[in-house]
Structures are given as structure tokens and as C-alpha cells.
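Support case: pyrrole-2-carboxylate complex. Customer-provided input:
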Amino acid sequence: MNGQRIKVIDSHTGGEPTRVIVSGGPDLGSGPIAERLARFRAGFDGFRSATVNEPRGNDAIVGALLCEPSSPAYDAGVIFFNNVGYLGMCGHGTIGLLATLEHMGRIQRGARVRLETVVGQVDAHLNADGTVTLRNVASHRSAAHVAVEAPGIGRVYGDIAWGGNWFFLCGGHGQALTLDRVDELTDFTWRIRQSLEAHGITGDDGGVIDHIELFGHPTVEGADSKSFVLCPGKAYDRSPCGTGTSAKLACLYADGKLKPGQVWRQESITGSTFDGRISVIGGKLYPEITGSAYVNAEADLVLDERDPFCYGIPRSWAKATT
Ligand code: PYC
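Agent response - structure generated as follows:
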């Protein structure tokens, strides 16, 4: 048979899909994961598009390339990517990755996996009940109550926070957060995203704010809040977003509304939930996020060079950010 074969295992975490590349991925050489990401982007971006974009994937899928770690301080390396580029970190993807490793028989319940990500070390535990708890990179709020004028919307206010990716977090936006309004919510948040860019509003060191989060009242019993999250390639997060929940926890802590150890249950637009809590060590805030993932497919992707869409259908309207 013609074509390169790539073995993948798919899962979803609270509805948001993750596709782990098990074999057949590009050879990115050795060294720190950030250097390997640079090689991935420069030399193998077609692989990214081929594995997550249509016709083999869709806009919501996050890919996870498992790599050898650069030092014995880690158990594995991982590079997350999506329909338009690369992610610093991915919370739902980390939960999906651990469920996948269990499915493969590579880890057992109780295992702790020290992951080398592009933005730092993330420790993930496969709990006895099959849920996964990840300890994210240090997170913080960079600016509070920032005003942005968005065309067709007017002035909106939000906090800018880091949770492994950059987020703009808005309450008081006047939008009903219901699943039947995904198109309207996507349009609303995309306008905010474009306005932030147009006005040069960024995270620290010019980091592009490529995730927009709206918060509202919860609908699931026991949840503290419900969110809608717009991802960099204009897809919405079906899960409560691990890095977004981390950013939210950093804002709550900065406002004196969350204490270390206190549980914050974040509901997604689909009704799935993550439990978040923080610890503060040496003045730095480390979010812990707990959620569940389910493996739903094992497949061989075939990349046949004769296929005009071998490397996916490009998302020409959406810019890569990371
Ligand atoms: O869970 O961190 C997350 C995430 C980022 C983008 C999609 N999911």
C-alpha cells in the first residue's frame, strides 16, 4: 500500500478530543523540547496539519506528539499542536495523554508522570479511580480589568492571565452561555481576539493572547462557574480547558476569592467539569486540575503523497500564534 503510516490513539476529555501520535512521527532530534518544537514548526508543519486537520481530523482535535525527554528529570516529553499551530501546554490533552498511556499498558493507576512541555514541567497523576490530576506550570494574572473596544460589540473588560497559554477572561459580557449559541459565542469571542491583536494588547513579553474565555453562572450541580473558551484556531473547547481553568484560578487568587487547597469546579459549555485547586510555593501559584478522559479510537493514518489533501485542508483565515 502507498503512503506513510502514523499510529494514533484518540480520546476525549470532557468532550474535547486529543490525538496522541504513538508512532510514525517526525524525527525532531534531541535537546530541550523548545528546540525540538522549533524543528517541528520549521520542517514538519505539514505533519501537524495532516494529522489534525480535515479530512483526517477536525478543528477541535489537539495533537500530542510524545517525545523522549531531554533529561532524566522527566519521564516523557510532549508537544501539543492544533489546527493552526502549536500550544505551550494543554490541560485536557495532558489528561487524554495519561488515559492513552494507561490504555497502552504503559502506566498503571497510581502512576506519576513528569512531563517536559514547551513551557515547563507538568506533573500528572493517574489516580486510583482513573481520573487524572495534573500539576500545571506556575500561573499568574498579568493585568486586571483591561478594556478593549471590539467592533460590533463595544467595550468589554477582562483579565489577562497565564495558565500555560495566554488568556483573556471576561465576566459581565451579557452573553448566555448555552451550547445552542456556539456560533454566536464564537463570533463574539473572535471579535475580542481580533481587537486585542489590533490594539496590541498582549500577555507578558508580547505573548499573543490566543484564548478568550467567557464566564457565567453554572448549570451543573456543584459547579462554581460555567465557561465558553475560544481556542486559537477558532474552535471552541468542549472541555472546561485545563490551561484556561488554571488562568481563572490565578485570577480568583489575585482577587482574594480562592485559598490554597480550596476546590473550584469549572463547568464547560458542554456541561463537563474539571476540579481545580492551587498551591502557593515560594510565592508562585501552581494550579492542579482534575478530570477524566476516555479512549475512543485506535487508528493508522495513511499519508499518500498522491492525495491532493495529503497534508490537510489549510486554515487560511486563521493565523498560527505560538
Ligand atoms: O485544556 O488547556 C487545555 C486546552 C487548551 C486548548 C484546548 N484545550
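Residues 182-198 form the longest helix (17 residues).

Case will auto-close in a few days if no follow-up is received.
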